[in-house]
Design goal:
The structure is a homodimer.
Chain A (H helix, E strand, L loop, with lengths): L1 E6 L4 H11 L5 E3 L9 E7 L14 E4 L5 H4 L9 E2 L4 H19 L2 H7 L18 E5 L3 H12 L3 E6 L9 E4 H10 L3 E4 L13 H5 L11 E4 L8 H10 L4 E4 L19 E3 L9 H16 L15
Parallel strand pairs in A: 1-2, 1-3, 3-4, 4-5, 6-7, 6-9, 7-8, 9-10, 10-11, 11-12
Helix pairs in contact in A: 1-9, 3-5
Chain lengths: 314, 314
């Protein structure tokens, strides 16, 4: 039996070496070479070419090489086998770092001081709001959202969360579903999007949602941080809200098209911070290790962990 | 009896109104007007003109309007009465925000992405170190240093502290005194200075100290964050270490001369972040409230809190 690596945009040979070192007794094959399709029991994929995983009669499981699995459900010829995603504790920590960094940068107006510095402008501001008077709203209360919420609370922010279905979290104000959205947005000065991309969430950060954010906060207007998925956002609506003044700023790590095309006005908009989809990247060694452990669990007859629910899409 | 407000650079009338509202039965006078020197029982000062507090025969206490008191000891005609500084919990929170913001910004290379953005450069970096592999060293383990250490630990950093005299803190590696300095610096990738300015600490961030920082860390070289006092640092030595490559970057909120003079090379050095001494500013209302409470305590026969030890200078 063998492990098939199916990816685009990444260096497959590096991944083959990592997996082969961790699974010395299992042949590791790649899409770009001849291989015995009947021998493939496992697939590790990152954005494989749609259809390339069909015709694997003995496939037992598909592993996403990242936390996202939306690219898998976009393949209508995906074999009907269990799908597991990577749950990397380091990745959760990295995401919290990104969210706390940018919430603090917004709170402390760091971009303003960055603009002042080359002008040799010593203009302090004696009336910065306290973190406790700034309301952060996290959309998505999975592992990533909950840890970010916890760390933002330690830093003093007034944090609430929204999730698709009702969720009770000790010490966190929570809102749920379509019926809870308006109240959630109305108390949000910094909206942090950490949702998975599904048919329900695609394009949900649109003009209507942005218009619902708090206009009575201490930051001069609401901010958006999207460190989830680019498909969640409608970029023309974000630009429209920024230019209309209903949105004060945006920190975007993900985009409708990645890499962000040079013609996108987001690159040079003065109120937008662009990072190259690196809010939370796992070390390749850690990912290969986590998937190898899963394969060893299956080989030992133990159940697969972190299985995705196809009906929810995450 | 009256309260004398003695300050330079601040709007004394705003402060008079704040104090008068809080102490309606006590005359509040200022240096710029005639007043009865025998009636002055209390002084609230921020950088008063040296000598201006002599000849106050009934003075009972001097309050610094900030956390720093070094300007008081620089006045050799200061009356020998108890001096209290402001210990504002909000100020401690603000300082932690600043320290965590800039440690995260260094960890996540935010300045690099800031430079890339106007160039429309989508260059991610798959090998950012984890916070746990980055060693932060905090010089000064008073209220500010201890809270910053605690929050940096929550964010995952590997934190240690140095203080003048030995201090045992649960969960924190501590070093003390001149004999502990070399080992402290040798394990420090990000040095955070939160020391008071005294005769012992003046100019201590010099070429020799900077040369002792870790050169084997994960950040490409060590970083300095000074959010304490400008007098702690020798700016020509910081610039020398940056240009020699022994220091990778510096985040400075305080300077030898403030406002930072336009001719300082720090303003435009590519590896330096300048902020205008606003890492931790109290709300004026909060400061006036804390000092008014102290005056009420004294009037009620209770002991003064947060008294400065003149022999230590803080």
């Amino acid at each position: 039996m063998s492990l098939l690596l199916a990816m685009t945009g990444w260096h497959v040979e590096d991944w083959r070496q990592r997996f082969q070192a961790l699974l010395p007794d299992m042949p590791v094959v790649t899409l770009g070479e001849p291989f015995d399709r009947r021998a493939v029991h496992y697939v590790a994929s990152w954005k494989h070419p749609p259809g390339s995983l069909s015709g694997l009669p003995n496939l037992a499981a598909i592993f996403s090489l990242g936390a996202g699995v939306d690219f898998l459900f976009a393949d209508d010829r995906l074999p009907e086998v269990p799908i597991a995603r990577v749950v990397d504790p380091d990745l959760t920590t990295r995401m919290s770092e990104y969210v706390v960094l940018h919430c603090l940068s917004i709170l402390r107006q760091q971009r303003r001081y960055d603009r002042q510095q080359p002008l040799k402008n010593w203009d302090d501001d004696r009336h910065q709001p306290a973190a406790r008077s700034v309301r952060v709203g996290i959309m998505g209360l999975g592992e990533l959202g909950l840890e970010a919420a916890e760390k933002l609370k330690v830093m003093g922010f007034d944090v609430a969360g929204w999730s698709r279905s009702a969720k009770s979290v000790a010490g966190l104000a929570t809102f749920a579903g379509a019926e809870g959205m308006a109240a959630f947005l109305a108390r949000t000065d910094i909206l942090v999007a950490l949702l998975p991309l599904t048919e329900e969430t695609r394009g949900m950060i649109d003009a209507e949602l942005l218009a619902g954010l708090a206009q009575d906060g201490r930051l001069g207007g609401p901010f958006l941080i999207n460190a989830g998925r680019g498909g969640l956002q409608v970029e023309t609506d974000i630009l429209g809200a920024l230019d209309a003044g209903t949105l004060e700023g945006a920190v975007l790590d993900v985009f409708e098209t990645e890499p962000l095309p040079a013609e996108s006005p987001l690159w040079t908009h003065p109120a937008v911070t662009v990072t190259p989809h690196n809010a939370a990247m796992s070390e390749p060694e850690a990912v290969a290790g986590l998937i190898s452990e899963q394969i060893k669990r299956l080989e030992a007859g133990e159940p697969l962990r972190h299985v995705v629910d196809p009906s929810r899409g995450y």
